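#structure-requests
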Amino acid sequence: MNISRWIETLDAASDWRAQCRECDELLRRGQRETLVEIARACANLNPKGGQSARSSILERIIESLALSTHRDNVWALALIFEGLPTQETHPQPRTSGARRARFLASLMAQEQMPRDCFELSDWAGDDVARRELIACLVGEFVVRKREIEPHLNSQTRAIMEEHPLGHLPLRLLESEANFPFLLPRYNVGSTGRGHASPCAAGETGVGQTRELQASEFDFAAMESAVRNWREESNGRTQGGVWRWECPLDAADFGTQLLGASGLEATAGLLGARRVPFESALDVLWSAANAGGAYNSGEWGAWGRWQTWRSVGELAGAPEPNSIEETDEAAQKCVWLDFAGQSSWFDNVAWDVGLACLRPDGQSMALLAATDTD
C-alpha cells in the first residue's frame, strides 16, 4: 500500500467511512504494520489545514487495536504511541501531549491482558512518556479489579517505585468497591461514561449552628477530584474548612451549620442528606475519572489518585497519609450530601456538594462543584 497516496485520498475526501472500513479489514487480516504506518501518517498535521479526517482515522485505529485482545495489538499501539507528537497544541487532545498516555492506558486496560501490557516496560526505558503509560496501565488494571501482581516484572515494579501512582495499593479497598462500575465503557467510535448521581435531599434537618472560624486548608488538594470540571469544562468550585469551640453531636450536623459557612453554594439550602462515606467517595470518583460536561476527566489511574487527594483534605488526613490511613479517617467522619440543593448549582447533571464533620466534632469541611453543557 502506498501510504502517502492513501493519506492524500483521505485528505481530499468529504466522507471517510470507506477508509474506516479499509482499516477494519486490515486489522481483520492481521496487517498491523500497515495500520501503524497509517496511524503515524495521520498523526502528522495536514499542511493544507483541516485535521478531522486524519484525527478520526487515527482514533479509530487506536481504538480498534486497543479493544481487540491480542499481544500483537499491544505492541502495535506502542509503536503508534512512540510516533505521536508531543505538542499540547496538536488537534487530537486525547492522543497527544501529556494526557495521551492516560487515555491510551484507560483504553487498553479494558480488553488487553496485563502480562502483555507489562512486557512494554523494557521498551519504556528512561522515556518519560512511555514510563507514564506503564504506570497508568498498572493503575487502570487496578481500578478494573484485574489481577496484576503475578504479572508485574522487575522493570514494571521499578517504574512504579519512582512514580506517584506507585504509592497507591495494587488492590481496591472495600470502600472502592463501586469504582469498576463507574468507569467509562469503550466501544470503537463511542464511549459510555459512568456517573454517580448525587443523593437527593432527605431528612437531615437544620441541626444546630456555631460561631465559625475559617481555618487554613489546601484548596488545590480539596478540589482535586472536580478541578477538571473547572479547568476543562464550564465548571465552578467552592470549598473551605471551619472550626468552632463547643463540640457538635453528629445528630445536630445539618443545613444550619452549612449555611453559616458563608459559601454561595450553601446559601438558602433546601436540604441535605446524611450518606455513608462510600457514597461520597463514589461521587468524587465519578467526577475525577469521567469528567464533566465537556471533558473526559483524569481517567482511572490518576482519577483514583485525585479522588483520594480530595478525601484526605476533606477528612483532615491529607498527604503524606496513605490512602488506607485516609480511608480510616474518612470512615470516622459524618458525611452530608447537599448537591443541587441551592440556586448556586446548575442542576443539569454534574453537581457535587459534600460536607464532612470531622471526628472531633469541632471542625467541618465543605466542597461544592457544578458544571453545565
